[in-house]
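It is worth pausing here to work through a concrete case rather than discussing structure prediction in the abstract. The textbook approach is simple: state the sequence, then state the predicted structure, then interpret. We follow exactly that order.
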Amino acid sequence: MTYCKRGTEGLIYLEDGTLLRGCGFGAKGVRYGEVVFTTAMNGYPESMTDPSYRGQILIITHPLVGNYGVPNPIVRNGILQNFESEQIQIEGLVVTEETDPSKWNSSKSLHQWMAEQGIPGVSSVDTRLLVKKVRTLGSMMGVIASGEHGEDPRKYIEMRYDEIDFTKFTSPKSPIIHQNNSPDIIVLVDCGIKHGILEELYKTGFTIVRVPCKSSADEIMNYSPKGIVFGNGPGNPNILKDLVKNFSAVMEYKLPTLGICLGHQVATLALGGNVRKMKFGHRAINKPVTDISNNKCYISTHNHGYGVYKEDIPPDTQIWFVNPDDGVVEGLIHKRLPLITTQFHPEARPGPNDTTWVFQKFKKMVIKDEGN
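Step two, the predicted structure:
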């Protein structure tokens, strides 16, 4: 019998029938979602608040999680500096051992934070077994429970992850303006933007206007932007028909455009390419990407379960970055339009800063376009 320091039992169930019982922590309750894993050794406050994880139960492979607790939010220019959104986005958390914090800036424990926000967690389970299952069989639906037992967990799975438009939960309901030194405006189509990406865009000096994910081309162009960014976000890009349509309409204006993560996938679909569900995706802070224009390799942060492969790229585009491990296309450059995309997160929060220069490249595109 496992000793549970919180006095609560928990379980994690996979739809292939795997059922592991352990200790519950965080909030008591039951959640369902797609079960995925990250190999990141640090940065759990950022990962857990990343809107791209909405609808997913996250397994962290590092054995000890919670060592440095959770800090108080730091906000500058309306942008969070130490979280990726205002709330925990994951459906639940699975770890080998949940620990109490010991760090100077910790304001609460991982357990307290999750309890306050209604997110269940499970510890004292074999995360290696779970990750091997996901790697072998692919990402699958699952159920996590803390302090709730006795019922058939299968009954809680109401819908498939791929069928749900999660952007309606992560996109702002109305525009948000981040005033900057320059009056020139970059419109960010916000489907669940990470604040780390928002911070790097703000550093370019432009005023950033975040508009809801489903904003029309007319609504976007009403701001007379100098450039447009389609950012990251959760879920299946193939069901976001309106977003794809709006991207196509915006490209008619031939403004400098940057697509990141979901934005990369939407750009691919809008231009006539294909996006496929990956077996278990890329979720880590140490993934290599190779710039094929100069054969330089960078270490980058990833969080995506859908991908573009070489045979899927749209007409009139060329591959910019590729993952040398599995060949997934990690960036595109359009041959005729001022459009660049990255599948990875160039701001890398958490993670390395190898690719933050992508934002400066986009800034140069905007300045060059202004000069024409």
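Step three, interpretation. The domain at 167-371 is CATH 3.40.50.880 (Rossmann fold). The longest strand covers residues 276-291.
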